[in-house]
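User: Hi! I'm working on a homework problem where we have to compare a predicted structure to a textbook description. Could you give me the structure for the chain below?
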Amino acid sequence: MESSAKFRAKVSMIVIEELELEEGELTDGGHFIDDYEGDSLSLITVLSRIEKELGVAIPTEELGDLVNLKALADAVERHAAGNGNG
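Assistant: Happy to help. Predicted structure tokens:
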């Protein structure tokens, strides 16, 4: 079973790579689009990597709510629990 901290670390790494951020630049509350110049395509790529690498599918309808690392990590944990993964 993946721990909450492991999920968060992996999600954080994916976001850092996809938004081309420096290590330590990403914060829980930093807005992906406003603060990190991400766009909807980069966020869709993040979701697809999470599904591929963590086995957690997050519906694209939730994309509008996934504005920062905290919201994204919470969604990953919520859907992981619902999927019976981990």
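For your comparison, note the following. The chain has a mean pLDDT of 91. Residues 2 and 69 are 18 Å apart (CA to CA). Good luck with the assignment!
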